[in-house]
Amino acid sequence: MDAIGNEFVCPTCGADVVRSNVTCPKCGNPLEWEGVEAGPGADHGGISPAPDVRPMGLGDIFDRTFRMFSAVFTRSILISLILFLPASIVLMFGAGQFYRSIGTLLQTTVASETPGPEETLALLVSLGVFAISFALAFLAVIIGEIAVTILVTGEFHGSPVAWKEALARAAGVRMLRGIGIMLLQGLAYVAIIAIPAALFGVAGGVLMVIPGLMISSVAVIFLLIRWTFSLTAVGCEDLGVTASMHRSWLLVRSGWWRVLGIILLMGLLVGFATMLITTPISLIAFWDFYREYFKALGAAGGGTPDPAQMAKVMSTMGPGLGISMGINLMISTLTRPVYATVLYFDLRARRGEFVRGS
Amino acid sequence: MDPEAPPTAGAPGSLNGSWERGGRSATSAAIAGLLGVGLVYFYGQSFFLSVAILLSAQSRHIASKADALLPTMARMLEAMKNPVRVSLVVSQFLLMLIPTVWLVRRWHSSDVRGYLRLTQCSAAEVALASSAVLLFYPANAFLSQFLVRQLNIPPALLKANEALFRAGSGGELLFVLVAVALTPALCEEILFRGYVQRTLERTLGAKSILATGVVFGLYHLQPLGLLNLSLLGLVFGYFFFASRSLLPGMAAHFTNNAVAVLWLYAGETPWIASRAGGDLFPQLVLVATPLSACAVFLFSIVSRRRRLERESAPPFLA
Q1: What is the pLDDT of residues B27-45, one digit of tens each?
Q2: Chain A residues in contact with B152 (beta carbon < 8 A)
Q3: pTM: predicted TM-score of the whole model, two decimal places
Q4: How many domains does chain B fold into?
Q5: How far does B22 lie from chain A, in Å, by closest CA?
Q6: Is residue A314 part of a domain?
Q7: Is residue A1 part of a domain?
Q8: Element (H, E) at A18
Q9: Which domain covers residue A274, as residue numbers?
Q10: In a domain, A26, yes or no
Q11: If you ran DSSP here, which 8-state letter would residue A8 be given?
Q12: Does a structural domain hold residue A95?
């Protein structure tokens, strides 16, 4: 059998098959794989036994997602805490430094003084620290997403994975693949947005940039959905950078609109749940900021607060922002991989990857 | 009756909806339903509010005047209060009540009233539930004021926010009572207790009171009121759980919101009461809160007798 990434061809009819197919989804011909024992319990994608998954309706996807979320909850919370507690502290520090520098700069400007090189340098340094802390948080997101995907995959295969093992697997070569995927996709999106906008701009002036951007946006949305399971493929099947992107591309091929709809719906539901949870947390995180702001507002008698006081208020914003960002990233890491993995298995089932016999 | 048992199609009081037929989890249904209805309600309400603001020429006129922030905001809220009240009523019925009823019918049972426990209860249960919440009101108000003071919120801002609840005449009072007391008492109770708690109860039992109470607090997106609202949610949930009827919780919810409106109508705001009333308010809290606990205790005795009677009735309604 020919192999292109993870894609193989049926020797009888030439249809696309994957390594976990027992029979060809098109002609029903039994498939034989080198080094893999056929039949139930065979190794499919690195984790055994093979799952008994059938194509799911929307209600089943919801139900499976909530069941999986409960099944891996304690382990994924532990992983998230290990990753995001330090990441949040670093973010708090980075954002705190940045906003303190902005506050100082604003206070200098309000006092009608030109900011000196020391203040400008402090702002640039704090911006660098903030960017580094943000990059570290981003790394935590990649490791967390892959680790939670490994946990959910284990549940699908009926072989639960311990949190330490999931974390260890995610933090190794899979993390590097995750970074590779993000960089590659990021570059593709930037190129798709920048190139047509520049071409249209050169050809027809500034006004033509807008249609160029609109066309690019459609292309980016199309690719975002086609590549939406790239990270899931790394966690689920331990594939390489391009193989993961290719796998996602193939899985979404026959149901792009369906995947878009489910991803959007799940994103909206999770976003709403996140808003409910983070609203009170944000109040606590921004407590000092709100206290100072209301104090300034009260002192101004309901009018416009004194700019110098507002500059001081601004410098209290950083730690709250750091905590808030950390918690949002943590919730996203706990939820997104769960529904993405459920949908991933549904798409695989739709391709007949788990069908045994005709 | 085993709640997860296969449904008897078509029989009154059976779990014959699509979610039940698929053998899916009740907890998943409660969470999906809560988030789904919440999403529709919040985005829909935002849409209705935006339309109301756009249609209100008066508010545009006020906003265009150059003035200080808080006085402008107060005037805008005053000018916008009626469109906001109408959009609140419309969105609660259209985007909260109707989707909830639709979900119950489609996912769970054709016997919507039975599922939601829109069943009769005694006058004593309604009276005790309302009294308990009425007597809890001073403690609730005291807690809010404490947090407001900690945050240095300017009194002018608090007063501006009260515009929605303040009535200037008898007719307006009736309208405000319908908009902010009766409507949430019906719609929110049907969603939170009737659907979410009722569905969670099938897998979590009494723990569903705690889960729904906290969610009720979070759902209002008022971080300063989270503790109060969650406490109220727990009390309403207990009434629902103990009486196996939605009506005591609805009565209690209506009482709580109506007291806030009547308090303002009487010319007293909780904030003013705490400042001008001096020592009276803490004393009122100390007297009323234990009495509220007594009312809840009496409720548990009354409802226990009635619950035993009901549990001998069809199991689905129990």
Answers
A1: 999 999 999 999 999 999 9
A2: 291, 294-295, 298
A3: 0.82
A4: 1
A5: 8
A6: yes
A7: no
A8: strand A16-18
A9: 39-350
A10: no
A11: E
A12: yes
